[in-house]
Amino acid sequence: MNIFSTPMKRASMALLAVSGFAALPQAWAVGTIASTSIDNRATVSYSVGAVPQTPIESSPAGNATPGTGNGLNTSFVVDNRIDLTVTELSGGVTITSPGAVGAVTAFRVTNTGNAAQAYQLTAAQLVGGAVFGNTDNTQVTDPLAVFVDANDNEVYDPADTATSISTLAADADVVVFVVANVPLTVTNGQFASVRLTAATAVNNTPGTLATETTGAESPTVVDTVFGDGAGAGDAARDAAFGADDQYAVQSAALSIAKASTVISDPFNGTTNPKAIPGAIVEYSITMTNTGTVGASGVTILDPIPTNTVFAVGQYNTGASDVRITVNATDTFCVAEAGGTDTNSDGCVRTGGGALQISTPASAAVAAGAANAVTVRFRVTIS
Asked: What is the CATH number of the domain that holds 204?
């Protein structure tokens, strides 16, 4: 709604013989700031019998006294146009992972009205529907937390504690964060959509929503008019605006395969050996990551089977006990007995008789079939 839409306001701007306009204040995004007084008075000059008479100034109640200063301004105050937008800040999905704590999506709330406003902030999860072309198919944890950027750095940090906007000047904006925890049960490639809605409230009292003025225009009272457009999940001219963002879950997806191969036996050697007592059997554990990100801190714990004995010095010309292959590149480590990794290579046999392989020997499994990791070790059948 244009702030000069009423007949009185149009007439006051259309007088041909006017003087003494008050200086207009600074122009904001949608015009003159609310509560500004628009003042003017007309001056009428005339003659009687070809003799110029003293001019008469206008007055709201009518003025018949000639002379400068005898009239009064015709005035009205500019009304409050409530208008706002909420936009998702990054322009794309927010990457997160299963089990993430404090995953952050960010929005920008902009006051496009002509007066300072307060805003209630509400975050909600969506069920179904698409954001950025991705269908919502999982949920983050409730309740969602909402925080206002306190230092304008557009980064969520401990200083951001306010959960509503108490005052936002006309033509100003502020970043708002929606913070959620991601369940450990979500899987790679799932999407969780969230919506932030800002609802205009009485200034400095975000707990009380703004109301629109009904009835006739009053030239001395700042009326309130809703002029906002429709956002996500809200209608036009409801003094609220919503926008959507989306968490995109990206995770490692490990597939673990284990195989055994008889390497030799006491009678056949390496020619068609059989799994008889005294035979050496090689285990191979292959880890393939079909996810979108690498798996870090990978640790393998494999109990040495009953009726077998861990075979030492089987690789690297007898210097190593475990062979680790990544895309045809071999590394080796020594699996000391007793649970003490004396050379810190990440390989050790625990006191319980299990082979443990961890960082740095098996630090990560990168995504993609070419990055499959195969760990080999050997045992002797008792």
From this structure: 2.60.40.10
What is the reported pTM? 0.76
Residue 1 covered by a domain:
no
What's the farthest any 2 CA atoms get from each other in the chain? 143
Do residues 105 and 172 both lie within one domain?
yes
**Domains of the chain: total:** 3
Q: How far is CA 4 from its chain centroid?
A: 39
Per-position b or e across 18-41, b if 16+ CB within 10 A of its CB: eeeeeeeeeebebbbbbebebebb
Q: Are 275 and 262 in contact (CB under 8 A)?
A: yes
In the predicted structure, residue 208 carries a pLDDT above the cut 50: yes
**Residue 15 in this model has a pLDDT that exceeds 60:** no
Q: Are residues 66 and 86 in the same domain?
A: no
Residue 30: per-residue pLDDT: 67
Closest CA to 58 of 70, 71, 68, 47: 71
Q: What is the pLDDT of residue 363?
A: 80
For residues 291 and 285, is the Cβ–Cβ distance under 8 A?
Answer: no
Give CA–CA dist 347/321, Å, rounded: 9
CB 3 within 8 A of CB 82: no
**Residue 16 confidence (pLDDT) above 70:** no
**Of the candidates 189, 220, 249, which is a domain's last residue?**
249
